[in-house]
Amino acid sequence: MRWRRRLWIASGLLLGLIVVSLSDRWLFFQLRSANLSRLEGKDWYRMLRVMGYLPTWLCIGGAVLGADWVRRQRLPEAGARSATGLVGSPWWSRGVLLMLSPSLGGLAAEVLKMVFGRRRPINNGGVEGAYVWDGPTAILGHHDGGYGLPSSHGGVALAAAFIVWRLWPGAGPLALAVALGCGWTRTLAGAHFVSDIYVAGIVSYAVTAWLWAMHTRER
Questions:
Q1: What's the whole-model pTM score?
Q2: How many domains, the chain?
Q3: Domain containing 14: what range?
């Protein structure tokens, strides 16, 4: 039964990728901002954009790490190991997971960019909004306009959102909405196709699921 469920999920994700890919060019022109310089001055744009900036999550993870350390010092020794609220977990678990998940999500996206070698929709050396592929040969060099599949900003933001959802389920929907907002800013800038964000979401979820499985196995 489990393999059937996984097959249905994989089929659904593949179907979603096909639909998004077929819509990519149209969505690119619909979503791309005509006045990006004005948009970049908006506070809401900057707030969403920075969710895909890895140092943001390293700072947040560090803050949680410090908070859990202080909490541990104030608890009796018997309760020290469960100071994070995750029974059986070390006190530093939440902070480390918050830093590690977006780091791995962003790293996986960067590696896959070189494997797929699909250029961004702009500054791609061809027609804007069209797919231009270098393929695995991208590993040997780097196109001046950069590669976009999957989005590394999306990978960071979505991996952070998925681990937040596991650590604090009540905060998960908001974290995911903000992460998707980060992906939206990248399409507004014309730097990514929607499919770049879609694939980043799949990769980030897989990375976070693996990381969480390792964490719970140790517990």
A1: 0.90
A2: 1
A3: 2-218
